[in-house]
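Sample pair:
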Amino acid sequence: MFKVKCFLVAVLVSFSAATVADHLSDHSVEKRIKPSGSVYLEGDDVPVAKPAEVATTGPRTAKSIYETKCAACHATDALGAPVFGNAESWAPRLGKGEEMIISNAINGINAMPPMGTCMDCSTDEIADTVKYMLENSK
């Protein structure tokens, strides 16, 4: 039993020594104290990130935009959003006219940010989605 304990202690000591040695190596220390960012001065060769390529899948339907971007609030009455399919919740807004509702969707109103949550939608897609929501909320 004593031999097993001595063996375990020896293994732990050697493991710990190796870990400490690795932790204190020049490479490890340099990596830990390296600045998190870079400063470029005039004349420096500054790397430029390439814009991400976005796969085009064709125009999105108003229904798909509603389901992926709008339903989180408009299906649940979140923050007072008018509920899809509920004519009563849309009635006060309809009194202001469809163009005003579209303008509010594009520019934002109350808790809804501009373009709702569809930052990659065009204004035409937003308008079509609003019309889709209104048509299905009569």
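The helical segments are 2-23, 26-33, 62-74, 87-94, 98-107, 123-135.
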